[in-house]
Design a protein that fits this description.
This protein has 68 residues and is α+β, with helices and mostly antiparallel strands. 19% of the residues lie in helices and 56% in strands. The longest helix has 13 residues.
């Protein structure tokens, strides 16, 4: 197994549906321009409440990818 060097980026994804969809939104968008994404860590989760119901989720995460 070779040694790897990783770089990390902080992203915030959003979704009116779920936390998981907010994370997937961020990963999907990052995947368009960032190669070799290997891991993620959720660092913060926020929600917007309207009329006593969750109207929108925002999830901040760090993604790690290997450098070529």
């Amino acid at each position: 197994m070779s040694n790897h060097v990783y770089k990390s980026l902080e992203l915030t994804g959003s979704s009116p549906v779920s936390i998981e969809e907010a994370v997937q939104t961020a990963i999907t968008k990052a995947h368009q321009t960032v190669r070799n994404i290997q891991w993620l860590t959720v660092t913060e989760t926020r929600g917007h409440v309207v009329d006593g119901k969750i109207a929108h989720w925002q999830v901040t995460l760090k993604i790690g990818f290997t450098l070529e």
